[in-house]
Amino acid sequence: MPEIITKDGSIKQDSWVVVPRPADGESLDIPDQPALIPADLWLAGKEHFEGRDIGVWFDSHDEPELLDGLVNELPLIAVNFPKFADGRGYSIARLLRERFGYQHELRAIGDVLLDQLQFMKRCGFDSYALREDKDASKAARALNFFSQGYQAATDTDVPLFRRRAS
Amino acid sequence: MYVYDEHDRQIAAERVAQFRDQTERALAGELSEDEFLPLRLQNGLYVQRLAPMLRIAVPYGMLRSEQLRRLARITRDYDKGYAHFTTRQNVQLNWPALEDVPDILAELAEVEMHANQTSGNCIRNTTTDQYSGVQVDEIADPRPYCEIIRQWSTFHPEFAFLPRKFKVAVNASEKTDRAAIQVHDIGLQMVRNDQGELGFRVHVGGGLGRTPMVGPVIRDFLPELDLLTYLEAVLRVYNRYGRRDNKFKARIKILVKALTPEGFAEKVEAEWAHIKDSPTHLTREAIERIQGYFTEPAYDSLENATELLATQRFENRQFDQWLSHNVDSHKKPGYAIVTLTMKKTGTPPGDVSDTQLEQIAEVADQFSFGEVRVTHQQNVVLADVRQDQLFELWQCIEPMGFATANLNTLTDVICCPGGDYCALANAKSIPVAESIQRRFDDKDFLYDLGDIDLNISGCMNACGHHHVGNIGVLGVDKKGQEFYQVSLGGSSHHDATIGKILGPSFAQEDMPDVIAKIIDVYVDNRKQEEPFLETYRRIGIEPFKERVYA
Fold it and tell me: Shortest CB distance from B155 goes to which of A84, A146, A161?
């Protein structure tokens, strides 16, 4: 069972699996356990998934606008980082949280390394599927390298220039 | 000048600790080279041809004398006793050891300096006019806005992994553009609207490199309080839609071109509509707080020293030449702006020794309120010198090698480190600069030619800004041999233009002759006081081609 890092740096076990996008002509094969499926496929067959532990995942080139108004029907949304240097997932996360008001768990999956964790946390991710070869015991430190940031983001709506004023 | 408060100090200290941790993990093999690469780049650390290279940020070019002294000490303790002023107002060390870098960063943090985001695919150091705050015709001092952008862009959680590097420049004068804003990813021109309100004209998608472009205007007037939300909208559109499949097509200019400037502007406006009233919207109070750091120094109330200077000029021809070329007028009566040129023939443009750094600190303390500005032309400005002390200053800096009276002339070359140091370069650039400087060592002839921007890059990454030189030189590699391609007619100012390639490239030893022929064509064709660029625009490239390739 994969280890998942939480926002406070602790480690939890979790049985959610990421179901890859089926190849052309193939159908979606959902195992009998909590599953994350591609967001557009969930939207297309939404009524079939009611009452089941189904969440969705976005790839970095996907548009979160797809689920505007529907996000809170999902218990878990994941955003894939195909390569750690692909920064599109940060924008996707902020949009899901700040624009579409997503309230439940938002997970970073894929090429998730220690030095991205604090950026991810600030953009609204609250769980992280750290890449398996990385040392999960160092996550708590990596999540808290900085005690504050200059900007407003998902984690705070008070940028430093407003904190200084108060 | 901006001074850190407890928040800035804490963030700087945490950054040093973070990089120490990252370096330790890299050295212990816990981070692969690929994984460490963006982390070290975002701390300014390259691995170069001969050794690592550390690029230290000089936010919008401003340095205090204590910072210069610390840089001098660092070059002595950790490097070979010299540093290099870059074409983006930063400072580079050429020989630090990787394991020493965390200690260097700690030493820098003590004097409120850092190497944050001086490289990598993130928002880089914001640059501006080196005459900010002291020139006569600026709309407002751009430095507070640069500092506001610096803080907003520092470790921005959404924009640390952009498709490619991202550079912002701000200019405040409507007559001049010393910041080359139209060849930046975002160029902000300060303007006032019909109601007299302060704001910015926003250019997006300019840049040099492989596909040089002048940045189109995507918004005519952006009110100052909207600065950060609008930047955030531009960056978000770029982060989401900029190309990531091809490094050479990943800059924002390619996206702007693909969508058309109008199409790009529409996307930004749509994004901005959602966030313009977010907490990132600036407050009057926040701007005024930062402006409070850029107040005028304690100027003496003086008259212009016109007569004194006239006498001194009359008595000393060299001083006269220096005054004419390296000294500019200041907004305060009795003061002047002095440029210390780092372009002495025989020294790589922009290179300074530890002793010279300390000498600059000393003259800054003695003559200019202890502050200097680094220019993108790789010179150093003393912005607040009393006119009645100019002669004394000149006597002081002449033996130091900072009074070469060639500012903005042909021999005030902008030049990247090139193949002598840089791993990316196709060809050497420093020897070309030097051979041209030697060829044009007759001062009277040089002055007669007037202002000519000669810019040299050792490869198409264009750190030497060759596309926007009136005369541009680009080093190219042809089957392992170094050749040089010449372009004419470029400009980085308000009339920003990408130069046109003259024709087939030349061998290094031919370069002084080639430049001499180009200059001959100019001299033969110019009308009265016509500058090089105007003659070129009037007569076109053909006469130059005919002479050079005859």
Answer: A146
